[in-house]
Structures are given as C-alpha cells and as structure tokens.
Specification:
The protein is an alpha+beta fold. It is built from 19 helices and 35 strands. The chain is globular and about 80 Å long.
Amino acid sequence: MSTKIGIDVGGTFTDFFVAEAGCEPRIHKVLSTPHDPSIAVIQGLEEIAASRKPAMDFAGFVKTIDTIVHGTTVTTNATLTHTGAKCGLITTQGVRDALEMRRGIREEQYNNRYTNVPPLVERYLRVGVGGRMDRMGREIEPLSLADIEASIALFKAEKVEAVAICFMNAFANPEHERKAAELVRKHLPGAYLTVSTDLLPSIRFYDRISTTALNSYVGPKLSHYLDQLTGRLKGIGFDGLLLITQSNGGVMAPEVAREKSALTLLSGPAGGPGAGLAYANVHGQNRCITTDMGGTSFEASMAVDAPVMVNDGEIARHRIALPMLGIHTIGAGGGSIGWIDEGGMLRMGPQSAGADPGPACYGKGGTRPTSTDANLVLGYLNPGFFAGGRMSLDLAAAEQAIAEHVAKPLGLSVVEAAAGMYRIICNNMAQGVREVTIKRGFDPREFPMIVAGGAGPIHSCLIADELEMPFQIVPRESSVLCAYGMLMGDIKHDFVRTFVSRLDGLDWSRLKAVIAEMAKEGDELLNSERIAADRRSIAVKLDCRYLKQYHEVSFEVPMAAVEAGDTAAVTRLFHAEHNRLYGYSLEEQKVPAEIINVRVQASGVTDKPAGRSEPYAGPDGSAAIKGERMVYVPEDKAFRSVPVYDGHKLKHGNRVAGPAMIEEITTAIFVSASFDGVCDRTGSFALYRKGREDLVANILKGA
C-alpha cells in the first residue's frame, strides 16, 4: 500500500488530496452530503478510482490506501446550528448558572439589546450537588452521593444523551469528579460523559465548565459520524490507518477524537496554516497569512516560523479553552447570499446557500443571489468549465436572482449590483485578515498571502489591494489546501496543569515533576498510536502574567532552560513576549511575574507527501492561452477582454501579466490589473504587485 489521502469535508464541497508514491499528486472535489457526510467521502473515493490511468477497480484501489487523514466540520456545524445532544450538567451547588452568567462581561459593551447566547445545557438539566474542595485541593465539604444519584434519575427521566461533570476547584483535586463519574457510568452506561479534569484540568471555572459542556454537546454527534465513516470504510475493504485532524493542526486516532470531541471544532480548516507555511518556505519566507474561501466560510490564519496557536477562543459565542490554531472564521464563501438590510445597505452573508440548493446558477432550485452568481456575471467563472466541465452554470438564473433581490431594490444594473456584491465580500474578508494580524500586533503588508479555497483566488487581488499586500501565492492545490495540509500534520496531544507560582520563588523540582507527568501521558498515547520513540518530541509552554494582572501570555520555554532550572531565561522570555503582544514590558520596573498554567505538547512525526519540483521552462506562457473572455476589471470599473490561461499548462517560470484569468479544473484565478504573476517550481502561482519583481527575482532568473 502506498497511497495517502487527505479529506476535508466542508459545508459545500468535500475535498480530496491524493498522494501516491512515484506519481504526481491529484486533487478531487465532490458536493458534500450534509445529512451524512460519509456518503460524499465514499463517493469521492469511487470517483478517484474511476479516474485513474490506467484504470483500477475500486476494491483494488482501496487496498492501495495506507493512510486517510480526515478533517470534519461535524462538531462545528452542530454548534453553529444548535443541533448537538441533549445534555445534563452536574456541578457544584450554587454555581449551576455559570454557563449563563459567563464572565459577567457584555460582549458588545454599548449594545443594551445584546443578550447572552443560550447555554448549551438547559437550566433544569444543570444540577448543583453538595461537596466542595478549596483552591488548594483540600476537601471542605464531602461529596453528596445522594445528590449525584438524584441528578442521574432526572437525566434518565429526561432521556439525556450526554452528561458533563465540572466541579469548582477540581483542577486542584479531581477526586469528587471521579466519584461522580463512576456513578454516572454505572447508572447511565449509554450516555456520553465528559469529566472536566480529564479534558481541561486548569484554573478558571467558566472556561472549564463551558469547554466541558461543549465537549458533551458535540460528542454524540461526532461519535455517530465516526461510526458511519468507519463502517463505510470497513464496508469497502479499507484496512489502513484513519487519523482525524484536530484544532491544533495535528492529527489523532478516532478513539481519542470520540473522547475529546471538542478537539475537532476547527478540524476542517486546521490543515490550512501548516500547508500555507510550506508554500511560503519555497519562496524563502518563514511567515505567511493563509486565507481559505470555500463555499460557506472564509478562514484567515497566520504563521511565524510555525502556525500561530491560541489557548482559548469561541465558537458560536461559546467559550472553548483548548489549544487551537489561531484561525478566524467568518460567513463569507461562494454560497454567501447577498441581501438588503433594514437601512437599505447591501450585505453579503453570513447566510449561505450551501451545497443544497446552492447558488442560483447551480440550477438546483436556489433563487437567492450569491457570491458565485456575482462572479459568474462578472466573467470570473466560465459557465461551461465549472469543476472542469462537470457542472454547467446558468448565467440567466444568476442574473435573474441578482436583478430581483439586489439590483432592482437598489436601483442598479445587474452588473453594478454584482460588482457591489464582489467588492463587499472582498472587504469582509480583508477585515477577517485584520483580525489575525493587526489585532495581534503584526502588519499584513509584511506577509505573503497564501490563497486557498475554490473561490479564494478570484477575490485575492482585491483583498490584497485593500490590505496593501504586495505578494500572494496561489498553490496548485489551492482548492484543496486544507486536505493537503492534513497530510502534513503530525500527531499531537496537548496537556495542561494549573501551577501557580511566582517566577522568583519557583520550585523547579515540583515544576519538572508536573512536566514529567504530562510527558508520560503523551508518551502513553503515542505508544498506543504506534509512533516510534525516535519520532517523538515534547514542547513546554508556560502561561505567565505580572502580579495582579487578569490575563496571562503563553510562550514556549526551551527544554534546556527547564532542565537547567534557568529562572532568568524564562523571565526574559516572558518580558519579550509581553512586549511583543502589548508593546510594553515591566522588566525595568522589576515587577514580579507568576506562572498560572504549565502546558506540554507531545508530538509524533508522521510521513509527509513529497513536494513537487518542476524544471525551469522560461518566461513565455503563451502556449497555455486558451482564448479571451470579457471580464470585469475593478480598477477600471468596466469589462475588458483579457487572456484566459489553462493553469495546468503553465510551467515553472511562465509569466502572466494582469489583467488575466487562469483556469484550473477546481478553481479560477483572477489576476487583476494591479498584479502580474509567475509560475514557481511547485507549479504554484506567485502574484506580485506590478513593479515589485524583486519579490520573485529568483523565479524570473530561473532559480
């Protein structure tokens, strides 16, 4: 067996990246099947087998697959659409409303009408029980087993599918949670169970209770999907390794995903940042901004040496405090619907036509105007070559939808309305990029933008103009970048322990013991996943803050500093990170700092697909021109006849002057009048602002 496949299930399309030993990588897309995403997975595999040259029967093809790495939006969509499990919560008496009270801070400070998001567990199913530990882990009130049994009886009567257990100060002593869990497992054996100290044994009660509830809320749905997926894969004879992408960009076994379902809440887009950095490295860059515009959403992320990680975040306004890639998602995709708000302003999304019925031009019953419809009207899409000709787009239906819902209400022509839709969705995406750069202290003008998604390269030049970014890279695998990135991910397991101590009085022996305990847990998991010892590593991070600060910063500490007990080195690292994030440090004032949490990431290196490297073919790309087409050029606010290139025929060194269109089977690239492009050695397209040939000088010289 020698085939590895990355599979990314999105809201509109399911993407496949196929890496076979000795062969060019292949990409494939099928429409998603939201009612059962595993159907599209099997359908895609069947189509890939049928398209092989020479032909191979499906059973024979399946036998060649040794690894499938799968990213799923099942848990994401369950949270966004409020279709998770019916949950019960067992918590400490007196604090059952923590899920509703949150942090007591209004998210929109000046909006008096802004209400809290409804909790994932209804109030009558949130049960407070007797028993209490203090912050040092000392029992000050015994656990009431009678209260636990009463809560279980309630859950049975209400047919609860999942249970979350989260007690105050359990991070310091999990004994009460363990006793409660024993009773739940005994009397509710069929219920999905999450124990907070198994998932997130750290300080901050609201973060922990929200994350625990979220894990139970999505757990049954993910377990059901994994049952469907593994069942279908077994049915077609697959006996290779199945791995699930997690939110930190790593991968894990399905068994781990079932227990810690919340780790998959960013599973779909998590492959993108690592893959984006790999393409930036080809151009000598150690940093990049990766953007991914699919059918339903737009994701933006940043990498500096490695993809940027965060230790907490939100999904659908629900707090999750697990390590994840710093990905910002907005509702901006090819299916995003154009509409007029109460003030008569044109808006795009976040509502999406999805895969069913899809944009009006799909001819599947959709009547609302979408971004894809606007792109078709503006000439960016070839109606006879969508998905390589597998789908025909209905231009008249797109024009009718835009005319009825946008153009006529605003008193515009169809073209003016389509151009407005295009510009607004590009501006929305530019704002998404600002969220992951400017708000974190980085200037987007200093980064190359890696452009991904089937719809992304049509919009990237306008996004780059808005952000004054001079350089973009559109990978050959742009439309399935996340699926490709999934094959680049290592196995990763994150652990956290609360460890409160001032740095200037740090007990290094106790800290090393805590790190060793987490490293041992990671080693045991990597053992179960058959990762060789020489392929394992651990990384240590500390969450630190100045005394009396509320928020902390997280930074990596070299193992050499840990082993040496080098307090001065750790303190310097903390000051530097605080200064980078907030523009100041209190080092000169000698303000003491303290540790709050210790984090360990245990990693196991996986085999990666080989990269492509093409020979230099010179600057002349005229052989790839397949004709001309009238295309709307934003700089001119008018249609112009521009050359259309076959992207699959462009070779290393071939140059493309904007404005132009580059068409591939799974995507289209609009090179605006402000940009030129050149094909690099990986077959990707480097787009640079006119006059900035210095950004691609090595390619232009044939290097």
